[in-house]
Amino acid sequence: MKPKYTHIGNVVLVGTSHIADEAVKNVKAVIEEFNPCIVGVELDKQRFRALLSQQKSSYFPSINNIRRFGVKGTIFALIGGYVSDKLAKTVGAKPGDDMLSALYTAREHDLTIALLDQPIHITLNRFSRYLTWKEKWNFLVDIIKGVLFPRRELKKYGLQSLDLRKVPAKKLVKVMVNHVKERYPNVYRVLIAERNEYMVRKIHAFQKKYPGMIIVAVVGAGHEDGMNELLQG
Known about the structure:
The protein is α/β, with parallel strands linked by helices. The protein has one domain. 62% of the residues lie in helices and 10% in strands. It has helices at 21-34, 45-52, 63-69, 71-90, 97-108, 120-130, 133-148, 150-155, 170-183, 185-209, 221-232; strands at residues 6-8, 11-16, 38-41, 112-115, 215-220. Strands 1-2-5-3-4 form a 5-stranded mixed sheet, with helices on both faces. The relative contact order is 0.21.
């Protein structure tokens, strides 16, 4: 398999799917090809620790979590975690296998690991603050359509089926991200755009600290194009 990535100066962006076996292999191949100074991952400290300990994230609706994440952020985390687990089981994977591949490969080659993502409590708290009633309604409608008419929904993206074992093609990812941006503008801003900016700022800081050294950044496929634009801007 030929490694897939986006190369911008001394930064190599690797877009992944968190449950795809192809992503696990691709992440390892890219890191070993470039032998970077730093391997950055789309994780914060909380998710990093949970992933390495193989523990499920503690997003249960406790009073403490609702205070930190907000009601909507807590519910979103619960639903997102449940869906990720179910999808991962269908392909015999675990959510976050791509990030584990990056972490284990970096450790194997004694490379520096950098946590690039914004703290999860900030992201979910902002999600709670900015999710609108219109977006909640759109979310409900899209779920019903997906359950009742899955083939029709796939055809909107030019698909007959979707292989979860593979990272979606960049063209498909772009269509999906644009769909989120159109129907869920605040969700797009909080979950994608703001985190793109945060992770790029982290990368710029490492570029200043280690000028000219290669940095491999492993991020979800939905972040790759946006971060690429910011890094080139």
